Amino acid sequence: MGRLIRRLPSSPAAVAGAVLVTLMVILAIIGPPIWGAAAERIDPAAILQGSSAAHPLGTDNLGRDLLARVLVAGRYSLTLALLAALIGAGAGIVLGALPSVLPRRAARLVTGTVNALVAFPGLLLAMFTAVIAGLGAKGAVLGIGAAIAPGFARLTQTMAASIAGADYVAAARMLGVSRARILVRHVLPNIAEPLILNLTQALGGALLGLAGMSFLGLGVQPPAFDWGRLLFDGFARIYVTPEVALGPALAVALAGIGFNLLGDALAKVASRTAVPGKLSVPVVPPEQGEPDPGAVLEVKDLSVTFPGGVQPVRELSLTVAPGEIVGLVGESGSGKSLTAAAVGGLVPYPGAVTSGRLRLCGADLGELPEAERRKLLGTSLAMVFQDPMASLNPALKVGGQLAEVSIVHQGASRADARRRAVDRLGHVHLPEPEKQARRHPHQLSGGMRQRAVIAMGLMGTPKLIIADEPTTALDVTVQRQILRLLREVTEETGSAALFISHDIAVVGELCDRVAVMYAGRVVEELPVEQLATGAAHPYTRALVASLPDMDTDRSGPLASIPGRQPSPGQVGAGCAFTDRCPLATARCAERPPLVTYGKAHRVACWEA
Ligand code: SF4
Question: Are 270 and 2 a contacting pair, CB within 8 Å?
């Protein structure tokens, strides 16, 4: 908020709004002590006068000075408007946040209620509530609060839904953090700023609404008075002495314009931030088979299906042994990240995950009760996403976010969890870890943030680290440091890693074994030493050939693979690489199975 306010002077409308609001606040503070006595002084000799030197806005039916009354009424008018806006915002935020924590049916009911309230005319809602609550300031405040609430509820719902897709929310879900805690700790702090901005605009609306209620006789009742009440009293004399209505009308208009201008300007400055889409966790119980007891991760026949039968991941099988770093490589859209999401239970809704087997650390993820599955994922699996900024909650300090893992899963005290967080930050070579723990993510560089995310993964005792394009958003030097760190971490902790990348050079440098994905399937799996010269699948060979080396002729274009990978909805019955394959034959109309080609080497190609 402070950042936004500092940026305001660049906008003339914002300056005008800020000046008007400041004047109104000053008036509310100094009005009653300075002009309070004059506003209450009855003068039988000056009843119902028009404008004069002594009374620039005239007098009322008791001879009281209307200018003084307008100046004094500012405090009461603004206080009532603030109360109404706070009530509306509070009720709206609660209504809007409820669907995030309630079971699906109750959430739908609340959402339906909000939709109905949004469609209901605000003024009618305000009058209806005011009449039920009773005439006077209380009824008017509640009425205007009721009219403001649906807008806040809708805003909260929309923003909470969009924040729910952020990586750090996905990570918190995977850690087993409850919905209510995610809402309070991760969602609400990140939508607080736009809600506060909306409150500024709502204040202007409340002020006008309250004036309207008083003007209709439903608001403040004598002897109390606000601008609306003064306007109501002055309106009866509008044709004889129009100046008596001018003062309160001008005050209401200027205050309303001021709050709206300021709110608009703040909202414009704030609107330069965006948030990603929604995630859910569907995992279908697996079938029986012959599991590999020694594997850290064992995936067999894993498919991810979206409505319409689109399958971005198809019957994928993969095993990761303890301490092993397996690279999952392929072009964008080959299904690498969805495979990782399926393992972590983070496939976006409405995707459905099916698998013949999905075992982590010997436990069948499909058969475990939800709480145990969450706990296993939270303690044994660490996810490192591509964008470290999206992986960390921008509203929380780095140390606090790391500590949450120990608090939730190891039952550690806050102090112990924090000590471990600092220790882990030091472990990933962050300089001055104590200091970094006290910082917010935006205060760290990209490389430092990615180190912090890796440190977060090390808060538990992960047996498997899934790193999904963890170096893509970093510059080359920092990439090297992060790759070295990942290697170091796996060697020190004995954890295995599934390293996802589109860059076969990076994979070749870091990994022990490589699985190449194309159009949702693994088409080749081989030890990294064989990658350069022993690859058997035409696609893997083409990927390797597209890498420049010291002998590459830099004067011509770099080698590339002609054509494009088919989208998940276009994959046919045969080999998906057929259209781009120089070795394709008629037999390729039938899909080749992934078969053993040599030691630890499997290929899916008829011509291999
Ligand atoms: S199966 Fe046929 S089309 Fe597919 S990679 Fe092998 S040769 Fe090429």
Answer: no
